[in-house]
Structures
1.
Amino acid sequence: MNEQSLSVREAIIGRRSIKKFNGQPVDREDLMNIINDAVWAPNHKNREPWRLVVASEENLEKIQNVLRDTTIPNWQTLSNEEVANKMQKFTTPGAYVFVVVPEDVRQKQRLEDYGAASTFIQNIQLLAWDYGIGSCWKTPDFLDDPKFRDKLGVQHGERIISMLQLGYFDELPKAKERKKAKEIVTFFGETNQEEDQED
Ligand SMILES: Cc1cc2nc3c(=O)[nH]c(=O)nc-3n(C[C@H](O)[C@H](O)[C@H](O)COP(=O)(O)O)c2cc1C
């Protein structure tokens, strides 16, 4: 059991996307515990429209090789140092979670499934944060590359919607400001003039 325990609010407002990891691996057991809790995400008709391809511990090197072959096709012509530099963004995370959703032919269901899987991903990110594990949801173009999909065992009718990089970090990035509630809320039945008068 994780010793830390942030409140829901603390986790939501304190989480940052982590893009610089320190190379420390993430334990498979921690990942599985996080995923076991994250599945309690809302999803219509309990379709649970997700499956995960995870790489951690001894499988990290294998996924890094796939990422190298995919993103640096000419890597064999480069020096070890050049390859290592280009690969840094892929070699420092401590684990990878690829989130795969079914692509329902019906638009409503497909959007619902993407929405549900997004809440599932947010759960993973918040629960990981509570373990002191940072993460970043990434959507590089190669997620749709047929060769990459094939290497991950993604089937026709499925889509990888997220490459989640997870890991430990030394620096907390600054918060990116968000709009305040009053900037995005319109109270039904009230005009702007009425709102101004209330101030
Ligand atoms: C659907 C989605 C796709 C994203 N894709 C990327 C990405 O490809 N590369 C990246 O660096 N960050 C990506 N992000 C992370 C955002 O950049 C990050 O959430 C945003 O800058 C706000 O920062 P914060 O999460 O620390 O508040 C993505 C986030 C979402 C929700």
Note: Residues 8-198 form a domain with the NADH Oxidase fold (CATH 3.40.109.10).
2.
Amino acid sequence: MHSHFRKICSECDKVIEQCRCMAANKTITYVICEDCKAKKLLINKGEKLFVEFQLGMNGSFYTSFFRAAMVVDTINSHKLYEGFPEEIEAVRKFKNEDGYWEELQERYNISLKA
Ligand SMILES: [Zn+2]
Ligand SMILES: [Zn+2]
């Protein structure tokens, strides 16, 4: 017996593929669609600078900036965020999201080859 299936993008909820029937009990599998995959591979300027900070490659401004951003409290980080949203977002994700740093380094390495 065939099993009913539906493949949905875990990022944008787009239905990528499904069996051609009307069954309500389709087994849902989450994958990432090509568009989201491409988007995920992009690295923004702030993330790039953050990786370079971790690698000790920044100039003095961003070295001081990220050193401060790594230790500021929430209120001050909001202030910094206004001027440097991408940079602060990268620091926040680094502190809070498991696997972000590994994934960011991968994107950074891909961006160097592009
Ligand atoms: Zn089916
Ligand atoms: Zn998607």
Note: Strands lie at 5-9, 15-18, 27-31.
3.
Amino acid sequence: MTKTSKKEKTKDQYRELLIGCGTRREKIIQLKDKTEWHNLTTLDIMESHNPDVVWDLNNLPLPFKDNYFDEIHAYEVLEHCGQQGDYKFFFNQFSDFWRILKPKGVICITVPAKASMWVWGDPGHTRVIAEETVAFLSQKIYDQVGDSPITDYREIYKADFEAIYVRTNYEIQQLHLVLEAIKKRKPNVRNTRKTKRS
Ligand SMILES: C[S@@+](CC[C@H](N)C(=O)[O-])C[C@H]1O[C@@H](n2cnc3c(N)ncnc32)[C@H](O)[C@@H]1O
């Protein structure tokens, strides 16, 4: 009997989820050494695409355990979910992605850029996710509350993502995002000082 090496074991436990997979299984956003899928689960609302899980992403929570995936990939699907202005769904959806991601797990997203002719051209698109929208997913931004007119969503949003890659590919008018799930944030220096003074 051969012993399983630590490296192989780690590879086995590495899990990835591709949502709104459609007919494609290509890994479009790749992290460093993670060019291939590891233990991939696919999900789509359409059974005809043969996903592992047939599920409507508007139906939350998603049917996965907490802290389960290392990577979630969502290519050209999040603009089909929720409704523009439905901030409760927006934050609920990202909170659920955060729930099923392991600490430091990532969600890799492509959506049509604001200037894309498809952003509202596709009749199935129900919202736009812009670079600016993504800023609201980090708890750090709420340090500005009181100093700027930023909307405070902390009553309904407790998850936390750090944007580690945000880039618009202007040739194809697509926004590419990689957001890391932060489950233990180091105390903020600014807040710490405030606490010490009070
Ligand atoms: C524009 S296609 C993109 C397909 C694939 N990701 C790609 O990049 O080629 C959008 C995909 O999302 C799926 N989809 C749309 N709304 C969905 C929902 N509410 N829940 C799950 N999948 C959904 C569609 O069935 C379709 O396969």
Note: DSSP finds four helices and seven strands in the chain.
4.
Amino acid sequence: MMTSAIVTVAWGLGSVLWVELVRDFYHLLSHYWPPLYRLHVWHHRVFRPDLTAVSDEIYRQAHWYNDVPECLVMLAFSLLLWGVTHIWAPAEQWVVLAGTLYTLGFLFSAIARGSGLKWAHELTDYTHSPGAFLTPPSNWTVNRPYHWRHHFDNQKAYYCGTFTLVDKLMGTALSLKGKTIAVTGASGTLGRSLLHHLHNRGAKVIALTSKDQAMNLLVQEKNIPLKTITWQVGKESELVSELEQVDILILNHGINVHGERTAEAIALSYEVNTFSSWRLMELFFKTVRTNEEIARKEVWVNTSEAEVSPAVSPLYELSKRALGDLVTLRRLDAPCVVRKLILGPFKSNLNPIGVMSADWVAKQIVNLAVRDVRNIIVTINPFILVAFPMKEFFVSTYFKLFSRQTDA
Ligand SMILES: [Zn+2]
Ligand SMILES: [Zn+2]
């Protein structure tokens, strides 16, 4: 009895997921197939960046040209699923009509909006409602900042309407095209590789380095001069005006004192690995104010797999773990998306015996970021894949329970 109830619920939820997948692929197709785009473009004409409608007439027309046909396609596919279950799994044929009912809800609200009924917009079109964004883009479901980016960041990304699954599969859950991305530790091995792969994705990259030398990027045997900003640990606040212009800040600088255990080595490790990154992250948070900044800005922090495993360098582990914990604590109420980079040992000047190449690691980081992975793990150690998410979940829950957002 119990199992058959579970199976029935699974078919019902599956039929809803099915029509959502149809919606997202139809939307994707609309951006690549001109006949459909001619209908869909009406949806893109409607909204101003503050999500108010350009005019009542265009608003109504957009629903007849875009939302209603979209719902009809979903309806047809939900009936197709019903037909298939009617033949192959007749016991479940009635429960899959949940997807049809769900689609009819959207169809009738699209017709109501097309007819110009005011209540219909406020009640049924959540992702296009104007007003201040209260949270950054969400991860598994589509909220207002997530969808805003489809209209005003990059129309060739962020296709999903309700669940973000299709964007995650397609690598369109984050667009790097045209984004200004600053990377610290830019002259290091990983820093260079990251700049390279981000540039390949169409980002405008900025190198932040302690070395007093302008950097180049070697692309197809051509040297491209990079915007290089020299800065020093302890002088993070001098970067504030630069950070205002940055969409994504990647905190990647670090030091490894290996086996040292002097007072100086302790101070240096925490200053560079923990506090310098933490200060830059806080300064960057202060540059996130408008809806556009909430939707587009991000911080990525390279905390390394030393968060959960030995790195044969005690002070490196201690200082990186402290940084990792501070990021976990602060991202509970961060104004923008914060990602962690959990990287295994790669070959670099700091670590000549690393197994992975920095170039491969950088490529994987970018691959996972465009799938909106918030904790980007790149390692050859399977233990990390299990241990890190567990550690992050428990520490984050503990911090949530025993700390609060304000003193009030
Ligand atoms: Zn839209
Ligand atoms: Zn679109």
Note: The first helix runs from residue 2 to 32.
